[in-house]
Structure formats: structure tokens, C-alpha cells
Amino acid sequence: MIGIIKKVIIADSIALIIDPAFKHYDTLSTFDTWLIIFGYTYQLYFDFSGYSDMAVGLGHLFNIHIPQNFNSPYKAINIPDFWRRWHISLSSCLRDYLYIPLGGNRNGGLKVYRNLMITMGFGGLWHGANWTFVVWGIYHGILLSISRILPKKHSLMPHWSDKIKTFLLVVIGWVFFRSQDMHMASSILKKMFGFHNGIGLEGRYGLLSLIAIAFCIAHFCKNTFELSHKWSNVAAFALIGLFAVTMLFIISGRSSPFLYFQF
After folding, report:
1. Which of 238, 192, 181, 259 is nearest to 29 (CA)?
2. Measuring CA to CA, how many Å separate 134 from each of 83, 128, 130, 165, 214?
3. What is the DSSP string of 190-258?
4. How far apart (Å, rounded) are the C-alpha atoms in residues 2 and 239?
5. What single string gives the DSSP state of each residue in 178-190?
């Protein structure tokens, strides 16, 4: 129930606004371009984590214990931490069957960075035979390499600055992941890091509201595996109410296919 609520109410509601906007990305202003990229950032997370939650929940009904696939990835304090939290099944597979057989970090030196780049490049290619996925993988390979080069900092201060920096780096990477080709990716990035006027985004305030809700849940709330699942009557009825709304959305045709079904 939690998974399908995340997918239909949050991810699909965001998709209704940003999918048409991406078709006309060249007409958007800088602000609206950032807005749809943030929207996609949360759409992708709630769509895929919702799907994973549904798989885990359905597995429990048949006494099949499926491992956790997401561990609050947008709370990560650096890129290696992000990949320990995001799509855990894929990142574990890449580590165990590609990175470690290539030599991992055993030999040190430049070979470690070579192994990282090959692993992440293939991780991008796994999503599809498109240069945008390859560049996305290489982009994360570069970030992982940089994180190994930079000295580790120890501070008694909260990690908010590190979390913000990591999140923004991930958001930039999603531009390549969402774009249909490199021309689209470069155009969106130019708009994001320049100052461009454009036609107002239809549904802007609705998207802002959805992003605010998704932001609070993804960055500050416990994830599904951290919940006790000992529901009070109020929480149980609230969950049932949201599930009923989800069913109405599905019946009305508002839901869309899972994003990761294409990979």
C-alpha cells in the first residue's frame, strides 16, 4: 500500500506536469527548467522506490524476503554513500560481478579509477543503448573518483552542506538520464546554468507543491524499512484513505507505467 501510494499519488502526479514540459524544454525559462528537473528527480525516486516497496510487500505475503533496494538515497552525504543507498540491487551487482573482478581497489593507483570508470560506464549502458546513459554512468564514475582523491574531512558540524552538495550533483546527473539525446541534455544544462526567459510552465504551482511534499518525505522522513509498521488506528485509516484515492486515480486512468519497466 505504501509503495503504490508513493507511485501513483506522488510520482504520477508529478509526471502529469513535467512530461508535457519536457517535450517543449527549449521554450522554458531557467527557473522552470530547474523545476522540471527537480520534479523528475523526485518522480524517478518515488516511482522506483514505490515499485520496490510493492515487490517487498507482496513478497512478504508469500513468505519471500526481498532485500531493501532503497535506503533514503537523497540523504546521502557523498556520492559513494549515494550509491550504497540508491538501487542497491544494481549497485551491489556491479560491485560484486564487475568492479571486484576487475581488481577493485586492491592494486591502488590509476587502476582503481579505471575500474570505477568501466564499472559505472557499464552501469549506465545497462539502462539502455544510448549515449546519454553512458555519459550519466561516466559522470558518476568521475564523481566517485574525485571522492577518492579528495581528503576525508572530519567535522563536528552537521552534514547539511555535504548533503546539499551531493543532492545537487545527483540532480545534474539526472539531466543526462532523462534526456533523449546529448543535444537535449546540453540544451537543458545551458538553461539551468544561464539566465533564460521562456513561456510559463503550465501547472507550476501544483508542481511546486508536489516537490515540497516529496522533498519533506525523501529528505526528512523515515523510509519504509525504518518504519515500525505498528499502526495506530488513525494512521491505519489514513493509509486506507490514501490507498482508496490511489485506486480512484488508477480507475480514472491517471496512473502511468513504471519508469524502470523500460530498462
Report:
1. 192
2. 17, 8, 7, 23, 28
3. HHHTS----PPPTTHHHHHHHHHHHHHHHHHS--GGGS-----HHHHHHHHHHHHHHHHHHHTT-----
4. 8
5. H-SSHHHHHHHHH
Inter-residue contact 45 to 56 (CB < 8 Å)? no
User: Has this prediction a pTM greater than 0.70?
Assistant: yes
Q: What is the pLDDT along the chain (263 residues), one digit of tens a residue?
A: 999 999 999 999 999 999 999 999 999 999 999 999 999 999 999 999 999 999 999 999 999 999 999 999 999 999 999 999 999 999 999 999 999 999 988 877 899 999 999 999 999 999 998 999 999 999 999 999 999 988 766 555 557 889 999 999 999 999 999 999 999 999 999 999 998 888 889 999 999 999 999 999 999 999 999 998 888 999 999 999 999 999 999 998 877 888 877 77
Measured from the Cβ of residue 191, the count of other Cβ atoms closer than 10 Å reads 21
Q: Is 87 a catalytic residue?
A: no
Contacts of 179 (CB under 8 A, 6+ apart): 132, 185, 188
**Rounded CA separation 189/194 (Å):** 8
- The answer to whether 66 touches 55, Cβ cutoff 8 Å, is yes
Which DSSP category does 165 fall into? Answer: H
Q: Which listed residue (65, 127, 140, 229) is catalytic?
A: 127
Coil/strand/helix, residue 33: helix
Per the document, the length of the chain is: 263
